[in-house]
Design goal:
heterodimer, A: 4-stranded parallel beta sheet, 4-stranded parallel beta sheet, B: 5-stranded parallel beta sheet, 19 helices, about 25% strand, binds flavin-adenine dinucleotide, binds iron/sulfur cluster
Chain lengths: ~300, ~650
């Protein structure tokens, strides 16, 4: 019995994290989670909008909510924790009557703001239990040591996100375990990587992200698994920058959990767009016994 | 009937938002009211004298006082009536403080409501009759539930005063938490050296019967005459025969049983005597760990026991006891630190709780009193203590202060330095709460003489790194973030209500607060009583308490029992139900609804009839509303009295 969800990909999915979007769609398809794109969705304004004006931020989000509400779906789901946070906070803020009225007057349409909103991760974990996902696995991630990295907003603030433990979440751990990977207990799983200050305070980012890479490496991890486009981009694209700033030499692949899940469920590397990763995942992938991929040779 | 009405100002408590004079004025026009006035403090000596004078002067034979709640002063005013020669049930109270002045600010509305409440009280009083109390004998035995230091003190004080005491403890030994402690603040004297002899006194006292491994199953009856059934749990060892020699423990092949006494630091054998000073010193088999009981083979202990005490077939046994008073002393439990994911509770082996640390410090503990990290047995250099884990934190529903953690953390920091002179303790705290005698001096000593580094601020996270832990937190005095490297982290876990406290409270019919701690009769004036006559409280079952306060309260509860038992008979409450024989059709509906079992079916001229056991009846009135014939009336709350009140309120 499949359920339909309004899918809100978020802007990164159109560019820097297109591989997250592609692998998310693939994973949902193979698990029977039916996604329907919100037609003509707009950017939620992400950090800049809510940092400058709550009303602006809420109005950007509310337009998307209103479209989704006309779609006859179970709820809205999004792969990006940052979009998720904006969607959820707005729907909470809209419970205040005066605020609700202001937002409606700006977007010029009625908004109920009552659809359930979840991350794809939560939907996947709750829709199909890790055990039943394990039954779908055709190529277990045996001998791959991973550390799960949730980032700082997937589960927090707890009363807004209402998903998993805010300090020691385990959904990714369980999911990766079910896929056959060896999951190392990662003390930094909810630390901030500094992503949103990436442009203005680079030294802060290299310090915070460096700490995460150091810890993962010292635990002997083969890869970091993320569920956040910002975290992924920060740790992956900036890894050289981080190395330079801290005098380290990490070459730690940063996967989206959906990519590794796809792999375990038998999807090909090329359709999971492994080639989009900056730090080469080749070694980690060999470990899993994935065929060295011809497609990547350009 | 000549009724007098007194409307109390209660200072500005009532008069501030109620026009008391106007209420008194209005009352003059109510039927049968012969006298009405307002008064400053009705409960004060002149206030009561005014009531007595008015009774004499105006020939009053019924009194209404409009003031605070009857829970506060009904008894006071009933005594006043008795002093004036009236029956004390010709008295009614209208609660115009809690029900009126404290909850509304609109003076006119308040005055109206107060007037209506007085009108109801007058209407009821016109239907009141004289009631007379009977007397009943009391059973001068007392049951103490819980054998921690508070329960031990209460039991010994009662027993020394000549009372027979039943002590019920659910673990296999008495001693409670104190038995697990190494040293005690603020004197740093050895815990078991001061508690041990008291425990032996309990065992040897001729007036004390100890039921260990037992729990109270049910409590019936009332003050002076409680019937309790006590479940003695199967120990699989005949305690009459067991001499406590401990040979069975040496040979038991199942050595991985959970060690409750050592708080899970280390493991123990399936057959076990928890600690050398245990009272009673008897072996108990842990059925889950025992190979014989779970798999049907082994029996090593049975072969070895010199007195043949092992009984694999033993079952729980329920015994009955009659007592006249009950002291609850069931103590507290410790907060489950695994709820703090950021501290790595349950994941990081060297993040332990304060009570586990006590076991590591104790010479009779699993490491013989050497501080060793659980992970690798190494002696730590840097020990970080984190206070308020599960205290003063609304996010885990523990907004209250646990009271003793500041002090025991200081103690543990001092002891750490004593054990490992080149160690360094770091204490993260919110603020230091040490108001007892010699307490502040003690925490200061930990800082000044023992060099413990106190950092004010909460810890955000603990992360393992290269065999150490990095404890990150804020220093709110310096206004900076700090990181401290630790070899061992000790979480000062707070106190919470003992497991099953709510169920026990319901059996005892006493109240408990939102956190499960038992409620005292009055927060200031009845600190060891409960709202159920004959049931008293001692120790931290009422709220977190250190040893001195627990002991003091144990003695206080014992003296309350002594004064209760100083009379041979108690007056029974006549506000009970009674059956009109002619009307009763013997359907027995009342018998099955009475929650206290106070109704018996008897026979009258060959017909079945209900009859009330007055000493058991609690006056709840359930039977009265159940009876299809209207044959049962609750004295002092009869249908006529209630209907008169309703009619006074809704005259149309
Ligand atoms: C780590 C630590 C260190 C401490 N150090 C000190 C110190 O140095 N100095 C100091 O003054 N205080 C100290 N305290 C506080 C001290 O433990 C308490 O003050 C004291 O134990 C309270 O005694 P109690 O009898 O009220 O409760 P408890 O010691 O908890 O005893 C209650 C008893 O009742 C039993 N029980 C519970 N429920 C039932 C039931 N339903 N039926 C039958 N039996 C039941 C329990 O098994 C237990 O034996 C410390 C506490 C901790 C956690
Ligand atoms: S059960 Fe037997 S062997 Fe064990 S302590 Fe008792 S007497 Fe000794
Ligand atoms: S029968 Fe049970 S308690 Fe006795 S020795 Fe064997 S395992 Fe231990």
């Amino acid at each position: 019995m499949s359920k339909q969800y309004a899918y809100y990909p978020g802007c990164s999915a159109m560019g820097s994290s297109i591989e997250y979007d592609i692998s998310t769609r693939a994973l949902c398809k193979s698990l029977g989670v039916e996604l329907v794109d919100i037609p003509d969705w707009n950017c939620c304004g992400s950090t800049p909008a809510h940092a400058s004006d709550h009303l602006l931020s809420a109005s950007l989000v509310a337009r998307n909510l209103a479209i989704a509400e006309s779609m006859d779906v179970e709820g809205i789901i999004t792969p990006c924790p940052s979009c998720l946070k904006n969607l959820k906070t707005t729907s909470l803020r809209m419970q205040r009557k005066d605020f609700h009225e202001k937002v409606e007057s700006i977007v010029e349409r009625p908004v109920r703001a009552d659809l359930p909103i979840r991350s794809v991760l939560q939907t996947v974990v709750e829709h199909c239990s890790p055990q039943s996902i394990a039954e779908h696995v055709s190529k277990p991630l045996k001998s791959l040591k991973v550390v799960p990295y949730y980032g700082c907003i997937m589960n927090r603030p707890p009363d807004v996100m209402t998903f998993d433990d805010p300090e020691n979440p385990t959904s990714l751990d369980r999911l990766m375990g079910a896929l056959g990977a060896e999951v190392l207990p990662f003390p930094h799983k909810v630390d901030c990587c500094g992503a949103s200050l990436g442009l203005v305070r680079r030294e802060l980012v290299t310090r915070l992200s460096g700490r995460i890479l150091d810890a993962a490496a010292s635990l002997g991890a083969d890869a970091i698994v993320t569920a956040c486009p910002m975290c992924q981009l920060n740790l992956d694209l900036r890894q050289n920058q981080i190395n330079r700033a801290n005098g380290t030499q990490h070459s730690m692949p940063i996967f989206y959990y959906t990519q590794l899940a796809g792999l375990a469920l038998g999807q090909s590397e090329s359709c999971l767009r492994m080639d989009k990763l900056c730090v080469s995942p080749a070694k980690a992938l060999q470990q899993v016994g994935a065929p060295a991929q011809e497609e990547r040779a350009r | 009937m000549n009724i007098g009405v007194f409307v109390c100002h209660c200072g500005s408590n009532i008069a501030g938002t109620v026009d008391t004079e106007k209420v008194a004025e209005a009352a003059r026009s109510f039927p049968d009211v012969a006298f009405s006035t307002d008064t400053m403090y009705a409960c004060s000596e002149p206030g009561q004298a005014g009531i007595i004078d008015a009774i004499k002067e105006y020939g009053l034979d019924g009194i209404v006082v409009a003031s605070c709640t009857p829970r506060m002063h009904e008894a006071t005013f009933r005594k006043t009536l008795e002093r004036a020669g009236l029956n004390k049930y010709l008295f009614e109270m209208a609660n115009i403080r809690e029900h009126v002045s404290w909850i509304g600010k609109d003076k006119e509305a308040n005055t109206n409501k107060a007037t209506e409440l007085v009108k109801m009280a007058v209407a009821k009083l016109r239907n009141n009759t004289e009631l007379h109390a009977g007397e009943f004998e009391i059973n001068k035995r007392v049951m103490v539930i819980g054998g921690g230091v508070a329960g031990i003190q209460a039991a010994l004080d009662c027993a020394d005063g000549g009372l027979e005491v039943i002590l019920v403890e659910r673990e296999s030994s008495i001693g409670g938490k104190m038995a697990k402690l190494d040293k005690t603040f603020p004197t740093v004297d050895c815990s078991s050296c001061i508690l041990g002899p008291r425990m032996v006194d309990v065992a040897q006292h001729p007036n004390i019967t100890l039921y260990a491994m037992s729990e109270v199953e049910s409590v019936n009856g009332f003050v002076g005459n409680f019937d309790v059934s006590i479940r003695k749990k199967a120990t699989y060892v005949d305690w009459e025969a067991c001499t406590g020699c401990g040979q069975c423990m040496e040979k038991c092949p199942s050595k991985k049983a959970e060690d409750h006494f050592n708080e899970g630091v280390g493991t123990t054998t399936a057959i076990n005597i928890p600690f050398p000073q245990a009272i009673p010193k008897k072996a108990v088999i842990n059925a889950n760990a025992c190979i014989m009981l779970s798999k049907g083979k082994c029996g090593a202990c049975a072969k070895l026991c010199p007195t043949q005490a092992i009984r694999f077939e033993q079952q729980d046994e329920v015994v009955q006891e009659q007592v006249g008073a009950i002291i609850a002393a069931t103590g507290y439990d410790l907060f489950d630190h695994t709820l703090y994911g950021e501290y790595g509770g349950g994941r990081y082996p060297d993040v332990i709780t304060s009570i586990q640390y006590e076991r590591l410090l104790s010479a009779s503990g699993p490491t013989g009193g050497h501080i060793k990290r659980p992970s690798d047995g190494k002696e730590p250099r840097n020990v970080v203590f984190i206070q308020c884990v599960g205290s003063r934190d609304p996010s885990v529903n523990r907004p209250y202060c646990s009271g003793f953690c500041c002090m025991y953390t200081a103690k543990q920091a001092i002891l750490t330095k004593d054990h490992i002179p080149d160690s360094q303790s770091h204490v993260f705290y919110m603020d230091i709460r040490s108001p007892g005698k010699l307490y502040d001096e003690f925490t200061r000593r930990a800082m000044e003489e023992y060099g413990a580094r106190y950092i004010r601020g909460r810890v955000s996270t603990i992360q393992p790194r290269n065999g150490h832990y990095v404890v990150k937190g804020a220093d709110t005095i310096m206004g900076t973030q700090v990181e401290v490297e630790a070899d061992l982290v000790v979480l000062a876990v707070g106190a919470e209500a003992s497991k099953g406290a709510g169920e026990l409270a319901e059996k005892l019919r006493i109240s408990y607060d939102g956190y499960g701690f038992f409620m005292e009769g009055h927060p200031k004036l009845k600190p060891v009583e409960t709202n159920t006559a004959g049931v008293y409280l001692a120790g931290s079952c009422q709220g977190p308490k250190d040893i001195p306060s627990s002991v003091a309260q144990g003695s206080a509860a014992a003296s309350k029992v002594q004064s209760l038992f100083s009379k041979d008979k108690l007056a029974s409450d006549p506000q009970v139900s009674s059956v009109a024989m002619q009307r009763c059709v013997g359907c027995a509906k009342c018998e099955s609804t009475c929650p206290f079992g106070a109704i018996e079916m008897t026979e009258f001229r060959g017909m079945p009839k209900a009859s009330v056991v007055e000493t058991v009846c609690q006056g709840c009135g359930v039977c009265a509303v159940t009876c299809p014939q209207g044959a049962i009336q609750l004295q002092h709350f009869t249908d006529n009295q209630i209907l008169a009140e309703v009619n006074a309120l809704c005259p149309y």
